[in-house]
Design brief:
Largest sheet: 7 strands, mixed
Number of strands: 11
Shape: elongated
Strand content: over 45%
Structural class: mainly beta
Number of helices: 0
Radius of gyration: 14 Å
Order of helices and strands: EEEEEEEEEEE
Distance between the termini: 40 Å
Oligomer: single chain
Helix content: under 10%
């Protein structure tokens, strides 16, 4: 079984920064794509940033130039550096990973979420 745990959420002021982390544990042979999603109050869950196993990244337009996604394959972790935070960034942030836990078998795993609140 694979578990994902997010950390780093909390309260930030507009223009401030936060760094989210996601740690994977359990039966992990390989991690393919990793990504961060968020769900704001009254909104649909959206993909914020994704990073492939080769390091290719992509971002939703609203966070381009402000957020940076990264991964540490040696430690099975992923991070999201969030700069220039805006009130509209307020949401529950979820990490997501595609994990090979048995050769020939992949699973899509989610963390339980961490709340980010941007307010003065």
């Amino acid at each position: 079984q694979v578990q994902l745990v997010e950390s780093g959420g909390g309260l930030a002021q507009p223009g401030g920064s936060l760094r989210l982390s996601c740690a994977a544990s359990g039966s992990i042979l390989r991690i393919n794509d990793m990504g961060w999603y968020r769900q704001a109050p009254g909104k649909q869950r959206e993909l914020v940033a994704v990073i492939s196993s080769g390091g290719t990244t992509n971002y939703v337009n609203s966070v381009k130039g402000r957020f940076i996604i990264s991964r540490d394959n040696a430690n099975n972790t992923m991070s999201l550096q969030m700069n220039g935070l805006k009130p509209e960034d307020t949401a529950v942030y979820y990490c997501n990973m595609e994990v090979t836990w048995r050769w020939g078998t992949r699973g899509d795993y989610w963390g339980r979420g961490t709340l980010v609140t941007v307010s003065s």
